[in-house]
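Whiteboard transcription, Tuesday session. T.W. wrote the structure tokens on the left side:
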């Protein structure tokens, strides 16, 4: 089921956000990205946690050759399915993204990273209580696909689907998020022939 949801979202990104005509807007070079998003996470059955909404904050820095790096922090409060107990889930990631232009203002991106997910509040009990949910921190890998759609040259709608894999206990969660990103320090770059290719990389500018 999760594979179907993930594939459907990836396909939907391409269909819902077609590339604008080449040269319709000036090309831009980005530097800093600040973002906020709402999230929904489907937790692995092994956690005994039901799906839950949450939120995240992110900050990124764009590199040459369409790469960027970012840090992201998230918070959600799912409830256990067996005993209906609330569990705090906090995440902190670092990731590398490859951003594929699909027009002057739109980008598809592919994401891979590493972080820590913490389940529960404060210290964990010496003996696990049935129905209380997971407790403690775990190193976690993350990978995903998403899109940024330009509303203005510096304001983007950003959607994303990711899968996180806890490395020690071996379970996976699926996350979907939708929010906005603000690009700071961006500037227009040359595209003299309006073909959507930066003059610096255009064989016939």
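and on the right, the sequence the group agreed on:
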């Amino acid at each position: 089921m999760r594979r179907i949801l993930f594939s459907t979202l990836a396909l939907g990104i391409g269909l819902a956000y077609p590339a604008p005509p080449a040269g319709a807007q000036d090309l831009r070079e980005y530097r800093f990205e600040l973002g906020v998003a709402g999230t929904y996470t489907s937790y692995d059955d092994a956690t005994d946690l039901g799906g839950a909404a949450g939120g995240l904050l992110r900050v990124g820095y764009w590199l040459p050759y369409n790469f960027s790096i970012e840090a992201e922090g998230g918070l959600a409060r799912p409830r256990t399915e067996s005993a209906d107990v609330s569990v705090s889930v906090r995440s902190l990631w670092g990731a590398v993204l490859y951003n594929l232009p699909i027009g002057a203002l739109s980008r598809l991106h592919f994401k891979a990273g590493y972080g820590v997910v913490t389940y529960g509040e404060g210290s964990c009990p010496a003996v696990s209580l049935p129905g209380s949910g997971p407790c403690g921190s775990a190193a976690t890998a993350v990978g995903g696909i998403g899109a940024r759609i330009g509303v203005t040259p510096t304001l983007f709608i950003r959607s994303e689907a990711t899968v996180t894999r806890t490395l020690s206990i071996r379970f996976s969660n699926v996350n979907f998020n939708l929010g906005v990103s603000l690009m700071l320090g961006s500037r227009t770059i040359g595209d003299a022939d309006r073909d959507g290719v930066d003059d610096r990389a255009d064989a016939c500018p």
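Someone added at the bottom: Residues 2-16 form the longest helix (15 residues).
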